[in-house]
Amino acid sequence: MNTYYRCLCLLALCVVFCFGVNAQTKQEAGWVIETNDYSDYTGVAIANGRIGLLPSKEPGKTKAIILNHVFDKESKYGVSKVLLGINFANLEIVIEGDTLKADNCTSWTQKLDMKNAALTSTCRFKNYADFSFTSYALRGMPYTGMIDVEIIPLIRNLKVQVGGQIVCPNEYKNVESGFRVMQDLDARMPVLQTIADSPFEKHQMATSATFIFDEETPELKHSVKGAYHHELVFTKELKKGEKYSFAWAGAACTSQNFDDPKSESERMVVFQLLGNKESVIERHQELWEELWQGDIVIEGDIESQQDVRLALYHLYSFSRDDSNLSIPPMGLSAQGYNGHVFWDTELWMYPPLLVFNQGIAHSLLNYRFHRLEKAKKKAANFGYEGAMFPWESDDTGEEATPTWALTGTFEHHITADIGIAFWNYYRLSKDKQWLKEVGFPVLKEVADFWVSRSVKNEDGSYSINNVVGANEFYHHADDNAFTNGAAKTALEYAVKAAKELDLSPNSQWSKISKALRFHYFPNGTMKENRTYNGEVIKQADVNLLAYPLNIVSKPEDIRRDLAYYEPKMAPEGPAMSHSVLAVLYARLGEADKAFELFKRAYEPNKRPPFGALAESAFSNNPYFATGAGGMLQSVIFGFAGLKITDEGIEQGNTCLPKQWRSLTIKGIGCDKKTYVIEN
Fold first, then answer.
1. Which of 67, 427, 585, 601 is most exposed, with the fewest beta carbons within 10 Å of its own?
2. Domains in the chain and their CATH numbers?
3. Alphabetically, which GO biological process terms does the record hold (predicted)?
4. pLDDT at 13
């Protein structure tokens, strides 16, 4: 081969190699969000549906552990509040008398790997050593977490002191901290542990932790740093240039889930300690790989790809298919809204999870089904039939809204939202046994509630009076558009469910669903309620009748309502409103307007450095999982044109932004179908 052809071949190989590296880099960028700036820091929770680890900018530290659906009183006469776990996920490292901190490091980075649900912090400490900390909330062991650590001395041998810490929240009572080494034949099991009672002593809290070493276990010493803070310490001489690895693993258990949380937390860390570090991480990664069978791939817009995947990552992180628990607005990232469950789940988070993961959707519905009897009692207590679900729900199923908030007493559309979610599950699953045993019992009680809640007018129509609708700025509304629309839809679904089971539906269900009142301005724009006169609204209300309720279906009616209500929305309102408008404009074929609203729904709410969503552009309360649900609905049910119908998932007209070359939606429905839309 002459020189000319050799050069051509080498050039071709270089092109192929560079293209492959570039493609790999772009693919990884869609899964990884990395930062080297902690000047304005909002961490992104690492969660597994049971516990959430809220990271810190400090290497090896965790700000808090959030527990799912473990409640005590917020105050002596207050409502319930979700509890923090006793925090096991902290390390303190001392080299040459200096403690490792972000401010005395260089080359600080944090990397969120969404594919494997892992957060890795790296830094260089005064040229002494390079550090790497990878944190997991283990998916396969949902009450546990782990920090996997690597240290490489750079310029000489170093003596390193490492303390694995347990820090108990100050408000907990009867705190007992200790360390013991259990022995079984040749197995030594050193365990650090704290047990305590929750603030009003509803629950016993227990956390255990231990080190896991790749090689010989060094001498461990117990050190008490205060009544609520103790640690397990080892000292190690490290050789220059040689990587040293270990892990710090812990478990947070409570009497909500275990009769003996102390012993159970010990067993969990012992399981990780005795040769299972790699296996539990591998299992964690396998389970996340299964979750990501449901995914959204955007070509041509890496920022949108990261934002959308981060939203889906959070919904997966905050839920499980085996928990029978729901998702509060802030998920497992904070104690916002006391960790209670609202309509946010059924109307905003549930639809994306339903199409991607029917196991999680089933679990979310079980949360409501298991509290049906409490909802029936609430209806009876307020003089109604059927079931009346609480606006804010906790572990009990009773109303958990603070008594000063009128939403808890009057925001009744939550009951219809739940009924709609149950019928949508049947639409996808076609599980008639489930419908008979679970779905229809809920739909029946929901429909009976709306029969008793509605009042007949002189002209034969029906009204639902004195409610707070989706627009929470307007109290004591009569014939709120969304409340009436949701009730109408739930009543219709109850009729369909009865017929599906060859049962005779209550004749009142159909009669009232057809006769509920809606009010209009002279030009045909639907009024938000009977006396609405153009006031600013908190969030979308009337527009929800076009999507997701599909009551308003004519394009000219949809456009008229969109044009009127978009400028009425308060800038401090939550993110979901513009997501709904984006769906509607996409379905109308207006890609540019839909994309503008898609971005407006969440871009102002992103908080550095990872893009965690706050509830509004003016709040600082991330991560707002409700906003994630709205964003995902814009993509799935707007741009991709998917619809949930009585025949299952169908695809209508698609509408891609010009910024996207293609959109791929993977793992949709029970048959895991893939939809590809190209520009």
1. 427
2. 43-291 (2.70.98.40)
3. carbohydrate metabolic process
4. 41
- Six-digit token pair at 52? 């959430």
With bands split at pLDDT 50, 70 and 90, how would you rate the model's confidence at 12? very low
Q: At what angle do helices 440-453 and 507-515 cross, to 10 degrees?
A: 60
- H-only helix segments in 571-640: 576-587, 591-600, 625-633
| For residues 320-340, average pLDDT | 97
Q: Return the exposure string of 501-528: e unless at least 16 CB atoms fall within 10 Å of the residue's CB, then b.
A: eeeebbebbeebbebbbbbeeeeebbbb
Q: Which two tokens stand for residue 34?
A: 């990395």
DSSP for 298-352 reads EES-HHHHHHHHHHHHHHHHT--SSS-----TTTTS--GGGG-B-HIIIIIIHHH
> Mean of the pLDDT values across residues 623-639?
98
Q: Per-residue pLDDT for 23 more than 50?
A: no
Residue 6 predicted with pLDDT over 50: no
Q: Is the peptide bond before 548 cis (omega within 30 degrees of 0)?
A: yes
Residues catalogued as catalytic: 472, 615
Above 70 in pLDDT, residue 117? Answer: yes
Among residues 244, 252, 62, 231, the alpha carbon closest in space to that of 147 is found at 62
pLDDT band at 538 (very low <50, low <70, confident <90, very high): very high
217 secondary structure, DSSP code: P
CA angle 648, 364, 139 (to 5 degrees): 110
* Position 342 pLDDT exceeds 50: yes
CA nearest neighbour of 70 among 321, 251, 253:
253
Q: Say if residue 24's pLDDT is above 50.
A: no
- Please answer whether residues 270 and 137 qualify as being in contact, where contact means their C-beta atoms are separated by less than 8 angstroms: no
Q: For residue 531, which amino acid is it?
A: T
pLDDT digits (tens, 9 = 90+) for 257-313: 999 999 999 999 999 998 778 999 999 999 999 999 999 999 999 999 999 999 999
Burial 355-393 (b: 16+ CB within 10 A, else e): bbbbebbbbbbebbbebbebbbebbeeeebbbbbbbbbb
User: Per-residue pLDDT for 19 more than 70?
Assistant: no
Helix axes 413-429, 440-453, angle to 10 degrees: 150
Cα distances (angstroms) measured from residue 421 to each of 14, 32, 148, 158, 246: 53, 32, 40, 59, 46
Three-class secondary structure of residue 104 per DSSP: helix
- The whole-angstrom separation of Cα 82 and Cα 71 is 4
Euclidean distance between CA atoms 273 and 324, whole angstroms = 29
Count Cβ atoms within 10 A of the Cβ of residue 19 and give its class: 0-12 exposed, 13-18 middle, 19 or more buried.
Answer: exposed
Hey, what are 214's tokens?
């790749």
- Kindly tell me if the per-residue pLDDT of 479 is higher than 60: yes
CA 394 to chain centre: 16
Residue 647: how many CB atoms within 10 A of its CB? 9
The answer on pLDDT for 94 being more than 80 is: yes
Instruction: Kindly tell me if the per-residue pLDDT of 179 is higher than 80.
Output: yes
